[in-house]
Amino acid sequence: MSQDLSAELERRVPRYTSYPTAPHFAPDVDADVYVNWLRELPKREALSLYLHVPFCAELCLYCGCHTTVARRYAPIADYVDLLQREIELVGRHLDTGRPTTHIHWGGGTPTILSPKHLREVGESIRGRFDIARTAEIAIEIDPRSLDRERVKALAHMGVNRASLGVQDFDETVQRTINRIQTYEHTAQAVEWLREAGIGSINLDLMYGLPYQTVDSVVRSVKAALQLMPARIALFGYAHVPWMKRHQSLLAEESLPDSVERLRQMQAASAVITEAGYVAIGLDHFATRDDALALSWHQGTLKRNFQGYTTDRASTLIGFGTSSIGKLPQGYVQNAAKTVAYRNAITDGRLATVRGLVLTAEDRLRASIIERLMCDLAVDIEQIALAHDADPDDFLPELKSMDVMAREGLITRDGFRITVADEWRALLRNVCAVFDRHLPADATRLSQSV
Predict the structure, then answer these.
(1) Per-residue buried b or exposed e for 225-238, using 16+ beta carbons within 10 Å of the residue's own CB
(2) Where residue 444 falls among pLDDT bands split at 50, 70, 90?
(3) What are the φ/ψ torsions at residue 133 (nearest 5 degrees)?
(4) What phi and psi values does residue 23 have, to the nearest 5 degrees?
(5) Distances (CA, A) of 2 to 9, 20, 180, 297
(6) Using alpha carbons only, what angle is made at residue 305 by residues 302 and 309, rounded to the nearest 5 degrees?
(7) How far apart are CA 378 and CA 398, in angstroms?
(8) How far apart, in Å, are the Cα atoms of 7 and each of 86, 163, 191, 331, 394?
(9) How far apart are CA 193 and CA 202, in angstroms?
(10) 310 and 298 in contact (C-beta within 8 Å)?
């Protein structure tokens, strides 16, 4: 491997679930700004909703999410009340009649909520929002917290897609990351969901975890494939102990290096695609008849804070601590601490504490980055002209990609860039070329592979 390629493997870059990325949000976009943005939305603007549940039964040491361990249920019950209040508050600033086309529950562990509370929050949403008949309603699930009553509640809520956290089936890896989860437990959860009519199943897997090897990752992938999921997400573990202190409990010497991480990703990807799945973007796979694969084929695939999606709504409303929303005007984010979130909601105020107003250049570069992340290709000239911009403004960026082209990471045909399929692992590196906000010191970002 050349020195240039080795350097790209070690590079630290954003995950590009948004552009500009969340570290650039600022407190000048507050609750008052958010209220005005909500009121300015076009009358028939389609909506997408995200609900964040920041609680888990125990802490997985690889976790990078905004979550805390709940030893008692009382704080969770209190949080449910806050979520319902926030739904009501946001609803007051929105005209009725807008269709809601996507709802996504994330965490943390959304299924830590009791069946009763899952139903109540679901009913609060339906009471305030016009849920489209064809809406995708998805939820992230820890199979260890699932039982038949919760599955019944999910079906009652209209959930039609479930994403199950697996990460790895290897016992040594599971013990190290503090996530003991048998194959049988996961299989039982899948069976219950399908029995309830929730047939679109996604499994989350990871590479780059402590003590993982190419062989162990491949074994976990093959085990996951036996459950015949509609989708698989293959995430690289992001070791950022300066942001998530609990990750420092994972010994550095147990972590695979960048070359080994690349091998793990490539080996796992090969097994999944050989099983008939379509590789989508950086790290997703779907059966050929799945909506995600169809959207990818049609060139309409999108990317947001929940990852790759078929969601075309330009407005995403976030609920709960740390949740991020996107509106035509820009981004908004709620308070990350539950105390600050609670204080705002109980005072009858929205909990927005920071955000970002999108400029014309932000929108242009966001379009370029999104197409790269989704399609592994982009026509700079086409996008620039659609934004009333001069494609020649990007000649410096294109020139800087000569090394990538020489190494075979990309091919260039005029203003068109295509990322080599075998180097999709470095997709974020290609996107970073167009990131005007990328800090000179990116050491606090996650590793590219």
Answers:
(1) bebebbbbbbbbbb
(2) low
(3) -60, -35
(4) -60, -15
(5) 11, 31, 39, 33
(6) 30
(7) 12
(8) 46, 34, 44, 32, 24
(9) 12
(10) no
Amino acid at 178: N
Q: DSSP letters along 326-358, please?
A: EETTEEEEE-SSHHHHHHHHHTT---EEEEEEP
Q: Which two tokens stand for residue 395?
A: 């000649």
pLDDT of 359 higher than 90 = yes
Per-residue pLDDT of 421-435, as tens digits, reads: 989 999 999 999 999
Q: Are 26 and 79 within 8 A, CB to CB?
A: no
pLDDT in tens, 254-281: 999 999 999 999 999 999 999 999 999 9
Burial group, residue 298, by CB count within 10 angstroms (0-12, 13-18, 19+): exposed
Question: What residues form DSSP beta bridges with 163?
Answer: 140, 202
pLDDT band for 190, please (50, 70, 90 cuts): very high
Q: Are 139 and 119 in contact (CB under 8 A)?
A: no
CB of 132 closer than 8 Å to CB of 165: no
| Contact residues for 409 (Cβ-Cβ < 8 A; gap 6+) | 5, 8, 419, 420, 423, 426, 429, 430
Q: Per-residue pLDDT for 412 more than 70?
A: yes
Kindly give, in sequence order, each residue whose CB lies less than 8 Å from that of residue 265, ignoring residues fewer than 6 positions away.
Answer: 207, 208, 234, 236, 425, 449
Convert the pLDDT of each residue in 170-180 to its tens digit: 999 999 999 99
Residues 6+ away with beta carbon under 8 Å from 105? 50, 51, 53, 138, 139, 140
Phi and psi at 415, nearest 5°, equal -95, 5
Average pLDDT over residues 316-334: 96
Q: Which two tokens stand for residue 184?
A: 């049988």
**CB–CB of 123/87 below 8 Å?**
no
Strand partners, 194: none
Exposed/middle/buried for 245, CB within 10 Å: 0-12, 13-18, 19+?
exposed
pLDDT digits 0-9 by tens, 121-141: 999 999 999 999 999 999 999
Which residue type occupies 300?
A: T
Phi and psi at 62, nearest 5°, equal: -85, -10
In 157-271, which ranges are E strands? 161-167, 200-207, 231-236
Give CA–CA dist 207/50, Å, rounded: 26
**CA atoms of 152 and 401, how far apart (whole Å):** 52
